[in-house]
Design goal:
Organism: Suillus placidus
Number of helices: 13
Signal peptide: 1-19
Distance between the termini: 36 Å
Low-confidence stretches: 1-28, 289-297
Keywords: Membrane, Signal, Transmembrane, Transmembrane helix
Helix content: over 70%
Oligomer: single chain
Main location: membrane
Protein name: RTA1 like protein-domain-containing protein
Number of strands: 0
Amino acid sequence: MPFTNILIIVAFLIGAVRAASGNSTISVEGPTIVSVVFRYDPNKVAAAVAGGLYSIASVCLFMRLSMNKAWWGLCLPIASTFMSVGFFMRIPMAMNPNSLPIFMVQQLFTLLPPAAYLAFNYILYGRFIVNCVDRRYSWIKPEKVARYFVISDITTFLIQGGGGGLEASTNVTSDKLGANILLAGLVIQTLSFAFFMILVAHAWHGIVRDGFLPRQEPWGPILWILMFSSTAYMIRCIYRVIELAQGNGGYLITHEIYFYLLDSLPLLTGICTYIIYWPTKYLETSAKPTNEMTGRY
């Protein structure tokens, strides 16, 4: 299994262990965990629909991956599966608003899987540069892009996990500290991913500058799906940063509809892109096409 996939799975296991720790329930007296953090009662129907859609996406991605034996992309369907669990956990969370384990599993499994979605794009970028075009189009050695960015994301992943855990506290000071830590992790993740998008745009510009038209090349769809899915993920990153920057009583965090429209939907759109355009097809059919890339120096 690739090194990056191992790191992602280990990070998920750490999050799961953290979620299962602590007291099982908080006293029902006073504000509940859900009311303190969200200021609304989670909609169980919406959670079930979102969980169902992510489950379907997970099955489709696993099928795509197994049919093509592209085990390097295992992080994508695994993350989607975790996220579907996170949505389904919003149902018992609505019925048990003071259950700390339920709240933490829900938080961690909806906040953290997107890091693996980003990791898939990092891996795909490196494989595209190495197999389809030329290393000179990348600012960073393509073989190391995934490792650098995944390490960055796992660092922010753990920061967000720690912040999410503290945010569950009914202590006002701990809750505020957790929100600030979570915000810091998301800001760093957003900036890191923005740099990755610039990296993709730079490679795209260099390829076009050398006279190649991506829409006419067999590997062309990879650039389009990379940028399209990355843009969808960036919408979610920006939303999360603004949401947390507004504070615990901010408009976005207290209205559940934005969680689905600006978080869940963009992420689902991004991963479903790969159900339709699984990249292995373009990587294998266009690997160093007739050595033309080196012939046009």
